[in-house]
């Protein structure tokens, strides 16, 4: 067993934020190269999941480690990780006081496809309908609307608080085809007003391309000049990603063989993600060929931010830069922790030395000898005893008590 990995000294991590319909969880799995969470409608993340990913080329299958409530990290099977997350979701669904819990579920994963990065998956933001004014009835529909609004506010408060850590990079997942409107971006700006720590990602890009009627519309969307004017200081993006639909069949072989699962292995899922990225670039280039200025150089610049691979590389570089930037702050803290640990170790070693059989026996013998010596003096009526142990001398007592001469025998004039 190992001690839990606590993000020391606000180690840089990527906080992923998005609405429930934005495909946020699917994007995280695509970045991991492995499907492990529940993906679909409804609220699937009621506690933030802090996932520390470590690239290990020798791990053909992911190795999972879960941090328990006691703060100790233990090797855990994937099924146990999934069951734990599902149990926590059900517990919070039934909780009458709150629907979300800000405490993180800490996981670590080693795998040959994952990057060296910490991803924090936050609860999906809820777009709750507004309760019409003047409605005071107690109908079930109205009660459900109020409950949904309360859940939306609770989820937003949790996500905003998580984004406030200055060393965290925010991954803002938007599902929009018009950059003038960004529901997730508005929430992110409550913690990062100028988006200086925020990377914007547009998801479900493959479904948006057919919605643009002309190549110039696609060009405007990809250039995102409106974002340059609205948020000139943003950290990065927008990136454009597509995650292929379908799940990896690993739980039930019979269902997997029947065709209910699209992918037979995680390698097939990773390969499908790469193919989706190539298809998106190819579709954009084909659409832009109709424009007069189209050439290889401009097409390359227009497709530079399309694909999960480009996003992943960019995030890895930013995280590495954050680590290097924080070296001057982290090294003195680590040195101080090292010195404190050495002092505690020396104190423990002294205590262990004192607990040896020879030391204990010598201490007991000395105590017995001293006790017998003074007991003999007491029996003979002696009043002589070391003042350092049994009391004070007259001069020590007078010095400690002070003199009353100056108070009661002052000369009157």
SSE map:
Elements: E1 2-3, E2 14-18, H1 24-32, E3 49-55, E4 63-67, E5 72-76, H2 78-94, E6 105-111, E7 117-121, H3 140-163, E8 169-174, H4 183-188, E9 198-202, H5 205-208, H6 215-223, H7 225-230, E10 236-240, H8 253-258, H9 266-288, H10 296-302, H11 308-325, H12 327-354, H13 357-379, H14 387-390, H15 394-401, H16 405-408
Parallel strand pairs: 2-7, 2-8, 3-6, 8-9, 9-10
Antiparallel strand pairs: 1-5, 3-7, 4-5, 4-6
Terminal CA distance: 83 Å
Name the average pLDDT: 82
Q: How many helical stretches?
A: 16
- What is the rounded Rg? 33 Å
Helix content: 40-55%
Task: Give the overall shape.
Answer: elongated
Low-confidence runs: 1-10, 39-43, 403-413
According to CATH, the homologous superfamily of the largest domain is: P-loop containing nucleotide triphosphate hydrolases
Major sheet characteristics: 10 strands, mixed
**CATH fold label of the largest domain:** Rossmann fold
How would you explain this protein's 3D organization?
The protein is of the alpha/beta class and 413 residues long. It folds into 2 domains: 2-335, P-loop containing nucleotide triphosphate hydrolases (Rossmann fold), CATH 3.40.50.300; 356-399, no CATH class. Helix content is 47%, strand content 13%. It contains 16 helices and 10 strands. The chain has helices at residues 24-32, 78-94, 140-163, 183-188, 205-208, 215-223, 225-230, 253-258, 266-288, 296-302, 308-325, 327-354, 357-379, 387-390, 394-401, 405-408, and strands at residues 2-3, 14-18, 49-55, 63-67, 72-76, 105-111, 117-121, 169-174, 198-202, 236-240. Strands 1-5-4-6-3-7-2-8-9-10 form a 10-stranded mixed β-sheet, with helices on both faces. Helix 4 (183-188) links the parallel strand 8 (169-174) and strand 9 (198-202). The longest helix is centred in the C-terminal third of the chain and has 28 residues, at 327-354. The radius of gyration is 33 Å and the shape is elongated. Residues 1-10, 39-43 and 403-413 have low confidence and may be disordered.
């Amino acid at each position: 067993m190992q001690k839990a990995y606590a993000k020391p000294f606000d180690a840089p991590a990527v906080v992923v934020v998005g609405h429930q319909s934005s495909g946020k969880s699917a994007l995280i799995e695509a970045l991991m190269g492995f499907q492990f969470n529940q993906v679909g409608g409804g609220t699937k993340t009621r506690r933030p999941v802090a996932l520390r990913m470590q690239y290990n080329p020798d791990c053909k299958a992911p190795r999972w480690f879960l941090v328990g409530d006691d703060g100790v990290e233990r090797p855990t099977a994937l099924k146990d990780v999934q069951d734990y997350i599902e149990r926590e979701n059900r517990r919070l669904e039934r909780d009458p006081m709150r629907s979300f819990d800000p405490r993180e579920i800490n996981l670590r994963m080693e795998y040959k496809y994952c990057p060296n990065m910490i991803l924090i998956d936050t609860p999906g933001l809820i777009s709750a309908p507004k309760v019409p004014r003047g409605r005071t009835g107690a109908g079930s529909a109205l009660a459900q609307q109020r409950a949904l609004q309360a859940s939306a506010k609770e989820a937003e408060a949790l996500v905003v608080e998580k984004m406030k850590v200055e060393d965290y990079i925010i991954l803002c997942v938007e599902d929009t085809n018009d950059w003038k409107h960004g529901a997730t971006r508005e929430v992110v700006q409550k913690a990062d007003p100028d988006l200086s720590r925020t990377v914007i990602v547009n998801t479900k890009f493959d479904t948006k391309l057919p919605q643009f009627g002309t190549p110039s519309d696609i060009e405007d969307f990809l250039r995102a000049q409106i974002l340059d004017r609205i948020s000139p200081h943003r950290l990065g993006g927008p990136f454009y990603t597509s995650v292929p639909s379908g799940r990896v069949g690993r739980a039930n072989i019979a269902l997997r063989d029947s065709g209910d699962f699209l992918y037979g292995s995680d390698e097939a899922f990773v390969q499908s993600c790469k193919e989706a990225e190539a298809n998106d670039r190819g579709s954009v280039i084909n659409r832009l060929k109709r424009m007069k200025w189209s050439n290889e150089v401009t097409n390359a610049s227009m497709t530079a931010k399309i694909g999960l691979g480009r996003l992943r590389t960019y995030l890895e570089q930013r995280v590495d830069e954050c680590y290097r930037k924080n070296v001057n702050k982290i090294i003195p803290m680590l040195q101080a922790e090292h010195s404190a640990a050495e002092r505690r170790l020396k104190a423990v070693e002294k205590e262990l030395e004192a607990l040896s059989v020879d030391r204990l026996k010598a201490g007991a013998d000395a105590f017995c000898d001293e006790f017998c010596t003074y007991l003999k003096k007491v029996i003979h009526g002696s009043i002589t005893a070391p003042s350092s142990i049994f009391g004070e001398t007259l001069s020590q007592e007078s010095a400690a008590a002070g003199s009353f001469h100056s108070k009661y025998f002052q000369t009157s004039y």
